[in-house]
């Protein structure tokens, strides 16, 4: 088609893609073209601004490495990851609310017996004892569910960001017992800033936004016949709970990290203060899918 006027371009692109055999790809790309063209007509970017936008996209790809996924990070700080998660996992349908996978899941956590300690190298912070159960929508315990756990250290860094930590520190994979229960030991995590040394950091600074996430533990719970649950349990007394840079905080997944000023602790070597967290998860029937790890 020979273009006579700017207004014809959107239809011309849609027509060019109309023969796409895959119906879903055809639908998704047609909507993408319509909405992105509408965005451009609203914003009317200058050519300099368009080049800056292209540089941002190139930059988030180039800033992605084995230890950091800047593309996932960009989707997170723009609310895109949380929106996709909630569209696929509506709040209030009986199952535990979902939260984003984030850029730090490694997909290869060591499998431990119930009760094991995630701490693999000297890590500061008060001991934390986490326990809970995994159930179906009708409240029946789910034995044999895999509970994959990972969190940042009390200084706010994941193992692969911090040369002070052993590989796989504060990560572990557990299997629920016959009553659907799980438990493990760790240290209380801190909140942390998302990485700000790439294009996403430049964007946050330009927007006068802080880069912080409230303290949380990541969980991914899988069992054949049930939809994979990916979520985070936040600390109810955490800083930045109301202003999470990734918009992940949902009321029902704010947990209570209970401070015990003194013992007895669930482990004999713990003296003095420690925390406990109890949280039960509910899975809904569906397909078990394992995401592609954003980093190695
Ligand atoms: Fe995290």
Automatic annotation (TrEMBL):
InterPro entries: Catechol_dOase_N, Intradiol_dOase_C, Intradiol_dOase_core, Intradiol_RC_Dioxygenase
Protein origin, superkingdom: Bacteria
Protein name, per record: Catechol 1,2-dioxygenase
Needed cofactors: Fe(3+)
Ranges for domain Intradiol ring-cleavage dioxygenases: 130-158
MF (Gene Ontology): catechol 1,2-dioxygenase activity; ferric iron binding
The UniProt record lists the keyword Iron-sulfur: no
Name of a matching Pfam family: Dioxygenase_C
Coiled coil location: none
Native species: Phenylobacterium hankyongense
SUPFAM superfamilies: Aromatic compound dioxygenase (SSF49482)
PROSITE patterns the record matches: INTRADIOL_DIOXYGENAS
Keywords carried by this UniProt record: Dioxygenase, Iron, Metal-binding, Oxidoreductase
UniProt family annotation: Belongs to the intradiol ring-cleavage dioxygenase family.
GO term, biological process aspect, one: catechol-containing compound metabolic process
């Amino acid at each position: 088609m020979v273009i006579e006027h700017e207004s014809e371009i959107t239809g011309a692109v849609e027509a060019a893609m109309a023969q796409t055999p895959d119906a879903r790809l055809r639908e998704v790309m047609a909507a993408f073209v319509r909405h992105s063209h509408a965005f451009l007509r609203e914003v009317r970017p200058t050519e300099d601004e368009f080049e800056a936008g292209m540089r941002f996209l190139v930059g988030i790809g180039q800033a992605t490495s084995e230890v950091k996924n800047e593309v996932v990070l960009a989707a997170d700080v723009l609310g895109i990851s949380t929106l996709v998660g909630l569209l696929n996992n509506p709040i209030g349908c009986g199952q535990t609310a979902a939260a984003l996978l984030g850029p730090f899941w490694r997909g290869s956590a060591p499998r431990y017996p119930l009760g094991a300690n995630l701490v693999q190298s000297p890590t500061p912070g008060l001991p934390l004892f986490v326990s809970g159960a995994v159930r179906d929508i009708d409240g029946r315990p789910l034995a044999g569910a895999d509970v994959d756990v990972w969190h940042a250290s009390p200084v706010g860094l994941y193992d692969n960001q911090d040369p002070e930590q052993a590989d796989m520190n504060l990560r572990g994979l557990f299997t629920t017992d016959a009553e659907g229960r799980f438990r493990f030991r760790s240290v209380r995590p801190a909140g942390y800033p998302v990485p700000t040394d790439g294009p996403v950091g430049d964007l946050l600074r330009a927007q006068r936004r802080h880069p912080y996430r409230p303290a949380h533990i990541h969980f991914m719970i899988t069992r054949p016949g049930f939809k994979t649950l990916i979520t985070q349990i936040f600390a109810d007394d955490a800083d930045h709970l109301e202003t999470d840079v990734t918009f992940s905080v949902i009321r029902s997944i704010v947990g209570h990290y209970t401070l015990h000023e003194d013992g007895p602790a669930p482990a004999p070597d713990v003296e003095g203060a420690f925390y406990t967290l109890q949280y039960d998860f509910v899975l809904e029937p569906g397909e078990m899918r394992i995401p592609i790890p954003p980093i190695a």
